[in-house]
Amino acid sequence: MSAPTVSPTHTGTADFATVDTPLGPFTTVVATDGAVLAAGWTAAPEDLRVLVHPTLRPDDLRARTELGSVTAAVTAYHQGDLTAIDTVPVRQQSGEFLAHAWDVLRTVPAGNPISYTAFAARAGRPAATRAAAGACARNAAALFVPCHRVLRTDGTLGGFRWGLPAKRWLLDHESVG
Question: Which residue range or ranges hold the Methylated-DNA-[protein]-cysteine S-methyltransferase DNA binding domain (predicted)?
């Protein structure tokens, strides 16, 4: 069972750490309580900080060599433990539908991608395919909120903030696990 998105709490300083992965550097920004605020395949933590909702966005970022269980989960996932990320707490803020949609994304199992239409239906708004796609596009916590597991209805990749080659790698990685 995946961990729910944690309720918002603004912090002035957040920690970040970057680890090497097969897709390149992966940086995670976490609140003082360890909840993931943003994550992605970049070595530039500022690129992630600006993705965090303004009510949660930290004023400062503090570099760490690792973030304990969060870093361990990122490493384990990339090494083949596809469920390692499932229980890591995430904190994102937006409207009611987006917050719910992000929680729903965390229930899409590795190796079983769904379409944007199916995602909209799972989120309780079957006619809101565009809103479902928007939830993927606005997701700041890549990997932990696995928007890469959502495809176009015809099975093609659609978009991904970190590039289509990264999305393809993630889906291939999960299909073998």
Answer: 97-176
